[in-house]
Structures are given as C-alpha cells and as structure tokens.
Request: fold
Amino acid sequence: MKKKVCTLLCIVLGIILLTSCSDGQSDEKSNAIESTYGIAHQDAEDLINPERNYLIVVNDENEYDFNGDYNKALQPDLVYFPNAVDGDIMASEKAAYLAFTSLQYDLKTNDNIEVALYDGYRTAKDQEYINSLFDDGSSNVVGSNRVGFSEHHTGLLLDIVIWYSEDGKNYEWYSPTHERIEAFSDFQTVFKKMLDYGFIMRYPDDKSEITGMKDHEFEIRFVGSAAMAHEIADKGLCLEEYVAGEQ
Ligand SMILES: [Zn+2]
Reply:
C-alpha cells in the first residue's frame, strides 16, 4: 500500500515538474531573445574584422581551411549564446551575430515578427556529429554538408526560425521554406529586411544547381555589409555567382 502511495506521489510530482519545465522553456526562450536585444543598439559594421574575408565561399568545391586547428579556427571572433529554440549554446562570428540581433530587434519592434537562431558556427567535430545523426550507414553525407565543406565552419552562416502560426492560434518556430516564403508575408518581410543588415539568403531555390544545396532557405549568410547584400539580391545572384563576377 505504501508503495502505491509513493508511486502515485512520484507521478504527481513528475507532472508538476514537467509542467514547470515547459514554463521554464518558454522563459528561457524569451530570456534568450531579451539578452540578444540588449546589445542590438551597437553597429555590427563596427565589429567587422578587417583581416577576415566576409565573402568566403565554402561549398562542395571549396574546402574550408581550418589552418591546422579543427576546433579553434575562428577564435577570438566567435560569440557564444543560447539559441532561442532549445537553449543549447551555439556560436557565431561576432559581427554576424550583432547584425542578426539588430535585424531581430527591428523586426520585433517595427513588424511584430520574431526571428531566432538555432545554428551557426560548427567545428569539424560538430559537423561530424550532425552528419552521424543523418547518415544511415548506406552512403556518406554528400555535398556541402561534408566535414570541411560546410559553410557553417565560417561562423557566417546562420540557420533561422520564425515564430509563426499557420492557423492564427498555435504559434511555433517555423523553418523558412520556399513555399512558406511564397505564402506568408511575414516570411517575405524577414528576407527583405535582412538585406539591410548584411544578410542574404544563402541557398535560393532556383540556384541549387550552383550552390549544391536544395531546400535550405532557412540558412542566411552574413556578407559584411548591407550595401553588398542589397547588390547581390538586386542582381539576383547567389554568393558563388557574385564572387565569381568580382574576380
Ligand atoms: Zn545550416
């Protein structure tokens, strides 16, 4: 009998804990967003590192140069912060991060749209781990997600999500897809406004033959200046095409 009471108590306690955890998670989400807003007034272009090539292209044909150190390639230009979706610690190149938080603040205050990051900088080990989750063992991970060929190694490629409700009731974080961007004006606003902060859509649907990446509209790329981002978008180019034209 005593055991039964104890079991019941454990279940009740478990439920209470679970409920408070889910509250805690939404708190964490808003805390993460609040903390990123806190530094949004700084100008990202002030943090540009003159030594860095913000137009670096990493793809199937252009391997990232780790310079012999797989885990410290971008130090000390990285900033670490919790991602807003699950609170996991992620990193980004610091000017890119500040540019993103400025974009985030602008969208929140002027358009009532919330955007967040859920992935950024990856070491070789990070990429190896991620690939191990998707590799079914029959074939290896292909294309630009191979270790060394992922633009996430640069810290300039960020994966975004948008807080949205498709039915006007249930809100959740949505990954931008080309269907959603076409259908929802909030998504269009995000992709239009990001140009003002130096971001482009890295893998447009109609450029997949060149970029080697399909259905990756959720990845945005910091190119170092708003003027350049606008130029790339105005000319209808992907990063590969723009960089090839520059040379
Ligand atoms: Zn990504």
